[in-house]
Every structure is written in structure tokens, then in C-alpha cells.
Amino acid sequence: MCLLKSQKAVKELALMNAQKTSSAPLLKSTHLLGIEGLSPSEINSLLDLANNYVELNRQIQKKQDTLRGRTQINVFFENSTRTQASFELAGKRLGADVMNMSVTSSSVKKGETLIDTAMTLSAMHPDLLVIRHSSAGACELLAQKVGCAVVNAGDGSHEHPTQALLDALTIRRRKGKLQGLTVAICGDILHSRVARSNILLLHTMGARVRIIAPSTLLPPDSDRLGVEVFTNLEDGIAGCDIVMMLRLQLERMNGAYVPSTREYYRYFGLNAEKLALAKPDALVMHPGPMNRGVEIASAVADGVQSVISEQVEMGVAVRMAVLDALSRNLPGGGNA
Ligand code: CP
């Protein structure tokens, strides 16, 4: 069994090295600004590459030289644990020089604009700029100004493409496919860039998507998203393959969207009883950060159907694949 496992790992590493040395372009675009516009083959290529990086990340020796000589700057104007840490690890494991700009101690606090900050960083010749910002469209704006590849690490309520990719990788590894699955996304859909990117990706890959929320937390254009809309959790998760829970994004709310978190949990919190309505082998997902007892019960978050920790693991691999793929489109190509 152990021998078989190690043979499998060797085979997968060999495949990864083959892909790496080919340095074939995987993406049409210079930047990753969103899932919108990605083709099924681009998504599959990124997921295949990320899948190989999962194996690398499980080895003792995790370091590669794919991004040797490249400089990656991570600029997070909004708080992050998972995304920032995994982009840093991803760049370092691929051999890049990685710098995390601390926004709280930067000249942004002295009134420097987003564009001026980006132009200042651009003058230091980074190859990859990873940006999180509270405004939708901020990453696209910067991509037009700077001379390097820009990765959207979350822009307002717009998109969070690497989250959707890591969710897709988690599902694909567990279920063997995305096509034909029914995915229920439940929670604060209105403010969620995770929901938006997931809806786009899952549609592109042939999955069926349901969104579940109180009517106050549904986007006004939800009938045009090509999803089934539910305002009742029990109805929405009945028979689904995947239950993806989202937190209430209180930081984006100006006003009361729900009567109270206690009331919200009663109707929209996922507990074992409600989860039993989904398929018996349904997966429970959450992008984090989680608010236990608000959108999800601890027993479910830590239960056998939960793949929440696995999502975090896939996050590093997906971000490695994205950085690798974008570096192939830079002047000098892959492994400059
Ligand atoms: N899922 C996610 O984006 O988490 P962080 O805010 O911790 O990066």
C-alpha cells in the first residue's frame, strides 16, 4: 500500500516536471482578474497543474525554481488569513522573491492613492502583483497601469477567482468531476465575491447552481444569474451534491439585512438535521473565515462531510498554478 502510494507520488511528480519544463502557455490573458472570460480548457489546465502541485506540497522538499528570478508583491488593502498566506507560500515554493506590502504601515495611511501606490511598486519591477482591495474593479484598473501580471485576490463584491478555482479543485478531487453536480451556495450572496466567482466557474464547467438566502441578501439581478433561487434552506439543499456556506459580510453592510444573527442561524444556519436533506455523500464547504453558530454549526464544520481544511490545502496549490501559468506569459516566459 505504502509502495503503491509512493509510486503514485513519483508518477505525479514526473508529470508535473514534464508540464513545468514544457512551459506551454495555459492562459490567454496576462492577468487573472476574474473567472469571467476563462474558457473550460483554461480552467481545466489550471486545475490539472494545481493538482500536481498538491502532490509537491505533500513532499518534505517542496521547493521548485519555476519562478526563480521573479519578484512577487502581495498588496492586501483588506484583511486576509488564507489568501495572503497561501499566495506567499505559493510564490516561495516556486522560488520567487516574495514581498508582502504592509498597507497599515504604508504611505496609503498618509493619503497616497491606490494608483500612485501601484505605480510606485511597479517602478521596482515586480513580475507579479497580487492585490486585494475593497473596491470592485480595482484590480482591473491597476492592470491597465502597471507593467506586470496582476492577480485579483478579491475585489469588493466583484470576484475572487482563486477561491473559485480552489473550490473547484476540492470538488473535482472528491467527486471526480464538476459537470452535472448540483451545488447549493447559501448565505450572504449579495455581498459575496466568492459566490459570484463560483457561479461563473460552475456554470462554465457544466454544474447546476442554487443560491439560498433571505430575500434581503439576494442580488437584485439573481434571476439573470442562471441559477435556481431559494429563500428556504431546507428546500435549497434538498438532494444537492455540495453545500457551500458563506458568512454574513457585516463589513459590507450599511444597515440591518437580517433581524439578528440568532434569528439568521435558526433559518439559514447549517446544522446536522438540515444537512441530512442533501445527498448522503454531500460535501460541506466554506471559504472562511467561518462564524460558527451563525451560518454553520461546529458539529457540521468539523464533521465527516466537511472539506473546509482541504479547501485551504488546495488554496496553496491553486495559487502556485496561477502564478506559474501567468509567469509563462511574461517576457522571458516560464522559468526566466
Ligand atoms: N477565503 C478567503 O478569502 O479568506 P481570507 O479572507 O482569510 O483570505
Q: Which hetero ligands occur in this complex? A: phosphoric acid mono(formamide)ester
Query: Order of strands across the biggest sheet?
Result: 7-6-5-8-9
Total strand count, please?
9
Order of helices and strands: HHEHEHEHEHEHEEHEHHEHH
Class by SSE composition: alpha/beta
Mean pLDDT: 92
SS summary, helix count: 12
Fraction in beta strands = 5-15%
Poorly predicted ranges (pLDDT <50, ≥5 residues)?
none
Question: Could you characterize the architecture of this molecule?
Answer:
The chain is α/β, with parallel strands linked by helices. The chain is built from twelve helices and nine strands. The strands form two sheets. A five-stranded parallel beta sheet has the order 7-6-5-8-9. It has a four-stranded parallel beta sheet with strand order 2-1-3-4, with helices on both faces. The longest helix has 21 residues, at 2-22. The protein is globular, with a radius of gyration of 20 Å. 45% of the residues are buried. The model has no long low-confidence stretch (mean pLDDT 92). Phosphoric acid mono(formamide)ester (CP) binds at residues 80-83, 154, 163, 287-289.
Q: Secondary-structure map with pairings?
A:
Blueprint: H1 2-22, H2 40-57, E1 71-76, H3 82-93, E2 97-101, H4 114-122, E3 128-133, H5 138-145, E4 149-155, H6 161-175, E5 182-186, H7 193-204, E6 208-212, E7 228-230, H8 233-237, E8 242-245, H9 261-268, H10 272-275, E9 283-285, H11 298-301, H12 308-328
Helix pairs in contact: 1-2, 2-6, 2-12, 3-12, 4-5, 6-7, 6-12
Bound molecules: phosphoric acid mono(formamide)ester (CP).
